[in-house]
Amino acid sequence: TIERFSEQEVMQLAAMRLPDINHEMQTRLYDYTGGNALFLNECLNLIAAGSDISQGSIRLNCVLKERIGNVSNHARKILEICSVFFNNVGYEVLLAIAAMNEFELVEALEELEQKQLLLQDLQTDRDNLVYKFYNLQIRNYVYSQMSTIRQRMLHKQAALYLEQQLECGLQNKDVYEHILYHYTNADEKLKILDYT
Fold first, then answer.
1. N or C, where is the chain less crowded by C-beta within 10 Å?
2. pTM, whole model, 2 decimals?
3. Angle, CA of 49, 54 and 56, to the nearest 5°
């Protein structure tokens, strides 16, 4: 397998292929591709064609369908839960929302890391295990493949979990914003009023 490109390498490759590309788009490219060579190439082709990279290409969506289609049911559930969060998801959050035993969760996470769909984010929180998608293309694809009712259910479960954390004393502005985000996407109108 080809090693992932670093953020700096992605920016250099983008500047070589597309000399007019701005710094913000170069940074977005790294977020969308995670340094994956295939994803990067496809995104650069989309930008060159004047297309929106957030939608991906037909080729990219076929690759994602194949990669994600071959995961276990538990792993798929973890991907779906992760896809409703902004970017990082803690191990404890996954354990609470997934409703699976810890052994099943660990197996699913190991499978997803091995298949390079999720990775442990060592930058965010050194005391707690935190996971994120290898790139935003994977997250967007997983989220788009869920039914609306499943999206709403998972957003509601995420909001309920975060509310429990508030009751346990975890209070900061971000938590309120995240709860509002999840209740908005769960279409829980009364709850939205509580947090606006």
1. N
2. 0.81
3. 65
Identify the helix (H) or strand (E) that includes residue 112: helix 102-114
For 161-181, how does the pLDDT look when each residue is reduced to its tens digit (9 = 90+)? 999 888 877 666 688 888 889
Contacts 24+ apart (CB under 8 A), 154-157: 154/80, 154/81, 154/83, 154/84, 154/97, 155/84, 155/181, 155/182, 155/183, 155/185, 155/186, 156/182, 156/183, 156/186, 156/188, 157/81, 157/97
Q: How many residues does the chain have?
A: 196
Residue 114: CA count within 13 A, CB half-sphere:
10
Residue of 18, 21, 19, 45 lying closest to 33 (CA atoms):
45
User: What are 97-142's pLDDT values in tens digits?
Assistant: 999 999 999 999 999 999 989 999 876 555 678 999 988 889 999 9
Query: CB atoms < 10 A from the CB of 16, how many?
Result: 10
Distances (CA, A) of 97 to 47, 159, 166, 170: 37, 10, 16, 18
Contact in structure between 100 and 77 (CB atoms under 8 Å): yes
